[in-house]
Amino acid sequence: MNLKQLEYFVAIAEEHQITAAARRLHISQPPLSHELAQLERELGTTLVRRGPRSSTLTDAGKLLYERATRILALAQATRRDVEGVGKGMTGVLTLGVDASCMGSVPGARLAELASAPGVSVELREGDTPQVVEMLEGGVVDIGVVRTPFASNGLRCRYAKTERMLAIMPPALEVGSEMEVGCAQLSGVPMVLARRLEAQVRGAFAEAKAELVVSCMVDDARTACTWARGGMGVALVPETLLPVTDTGECFIKVVAEKGLSGRQAVVWKADRYMSPLAQRCLALLGDLG
Q: Which of 24, 36, 123, 193 has the fewest CB atoms found within 10 Å of its own CB?
């Protein structure tokens, strides 16, 4: 099993058809089918079920696809790092960014880096656990995440604590003109980002308020979209506001100590940091 075979297999898995995968790889179909058959013989199992119009992965194929995408990303990152040692302040910098931090990144800090000759930035998005996993796997150089997260093996530079905001459809407005607490939100339909659920439930329990979740989403930006559609009150970090359309919704500060968070710039403690990555860390500062 080699990297070329894994690249071919990933193309087949993502295109769902050997002919389409061959077009994507700019090769003819016979060598692609040959490499797949050789890989299946080597592993002793069927990876792809061929159908008349499309191909599907077996359970073994699904497992290989998950591992292969990681292996290929790590191989790419390794090549980039090794090349970067010789190039110094040129090359490709990979950033993993939690989507809820897009109000702070890129910002003016990275404009200097992106405009430097011979430098390009590759962005990978995901939620905080996914960004941390990408760091662990060597897929990204630096991560921008949001608390809470597991910081074992990471070096972290935290931003200041930021407030949570309630994005309220007009029909669901409660609280004072500028603020709202869990007591006022008791019984009101809420739209929550999934990773905030435990934090929000804890704050509502502390206030002896009833939490009613009308919708659970993966992305805080999606929570704002659903609030704009009248589905409930969305709770989102303050720094997300500049990059989010809240429509006609009211925006109020959530006045609860338990509902706040911080962004953080993180990187692997035991990993070599290229001059380019070090410059990026200096430019990002503490996101303040």
A: 123
